[in-house]
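Per your request, structure below.
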């Protein structure tokens, strides 16, 4: 078994579970895939024969050296940190739709998810992303309003993608075994679930409000409202939202109404 490196958060998927993941991906001959963190290639080498092209992004030079001699011609292996990879340039090149797969390191899964959402909103060519995540992160992504897990990650992902859990993986599915269970989620990208006047305002408002998620909306919204030179009470009245509620109870359409108040020019 290839030696995993703790600094990269590496846990390598066992072959029998890689087979299950490929089945869940349902690859087609015309698909282009981006794989995040191929490691020793247990998924890469199973997926590549079934798709048109696969680009794999790997941060670990030792993994790159190990995998390179094994690759078929339709695989491009890039030695780089995914968070520093110019994925937007590839999408802007208009080579067609792109699907994503990956076993995400637990310590950087949220930044990777936000990066994928950003790429989707800018270029619109990402079809879906099927990702192995720590179970607790998956639960945050799936969380509904009113639950303790509902927050910035839930809202950001659900605004732009339909979420479906496709596999549950025990610690024994990996070597070395992590201390946590994992889940595979498929995010199917689409236009925003609710119309927004200014998505940047929506994102900034949500991040600000959820730093004070246990406060009532009348208090949680005040810091953001102050940055916009607006009144939190007026915003809540305009959006027809009870100021005594808490941020974690708001549906996407309610958050959109609030954000649109702050997006409108002050008269």
């Amino acid at each position: 078994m290839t030696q995993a490196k703790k600094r990269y958060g590496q846990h390598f998927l066992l072959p029998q579970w890689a087979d299950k993941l490929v089945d869940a991906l349902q690859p087609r001959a015309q698909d282009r895939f981006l794989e995040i963190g191929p490691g020793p290639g247990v998924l890469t080498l199973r997926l590549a024969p079934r798709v048109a092209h696969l680009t794999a992004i790997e941060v670990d030079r030792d993994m790159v050296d190990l995998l390179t001699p094994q690759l078929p011609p339709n695989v491009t292996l890039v030695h780089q940190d995914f968070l520093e990879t110019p994925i937007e340039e590839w999408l802007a090149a208009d080579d067609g739709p792109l699907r994503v797969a990956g076993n995400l390191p637990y310590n950087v899964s949220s930044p990777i998810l936000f990066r994928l959402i950003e790429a989707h909103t800018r270029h619109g060519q990402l079809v879906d992303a099927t990702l192995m995540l720590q179970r607790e992160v998956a639960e945050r992504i799936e969380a509904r309003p009113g639950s303790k897990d509902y927050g910035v990650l839930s809202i950001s992902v659900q605004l732009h993608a339909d979420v479906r859990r496709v596999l549950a993986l025990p610690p024994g599915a990996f070597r070395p075994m992590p201390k946590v269970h994992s889940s595979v989620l498929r995010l199917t990208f689409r236009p925003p679930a609710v119309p927004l006047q200014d998505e940047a305002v929506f994102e900034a408002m949500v991040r600000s409000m959820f730093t004070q998620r246990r406060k009532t909306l009348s208090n949680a919204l005040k810091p953001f409202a102050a940055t916009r030179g607006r009144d939190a009470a007026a915003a809540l009245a305009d959006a027809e939202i009870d100021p005594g509620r808490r941020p974690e109870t708001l549906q996407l359409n309610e958050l959109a109404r609030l954000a649109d108040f702050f997006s409108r020019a002050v008269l």
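The chain has a mean pLDDT of 91.

Regards,
D.
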